[in-house]
């Protein structure tokens, strides 16, 4: 299965998919997109950002291992890059939260 997601935030439960910024390659200011990615027990979550570029100090990507509402974080990442990069995360968990903050200031 493959899905393509353009909305800003949601819950993803399929084995494979793509998340794009709203309006990609451009994106709106002052927006927060929160994605929850879940898989069945025994599977890992692997995320690969093929092209990742942000406005330094204005745009942020946060990745949480666990359920945000219970604040049970095992890992916490914040990335802000001004030059294009590719990123890869692999987690041996069943719930992963991904937050994108666009143009915070």
UniProtKB/TrEMBL annotation:
Gene3D superfamilies: Spermadhesin, CUB domain
Transmembrane segments: 86-104
Regions annotated as coiled coil: none
Pfam families in UniProt: CUB (PF00431)
SMART domains membership: CUB
Domain CUB: 8-73
Matching PROSITE patterns: CUB (PS01180)
InterPro entries attached to this UniProt entry: CUB_dom, Sperma_CUB_dom_sf, Spermadhesin-Link_domain
SUPFAM superfamilies, sorted: Spermadhesin, CUB domain
Superkingdom assignment: Eukaryota
Keywords: Disulfide bond, Membrane, Transmembrane, Transmembrane helix
Name of the protein in its database record: CUB domain-containing protein
Organism (species): Crocodylus porosus
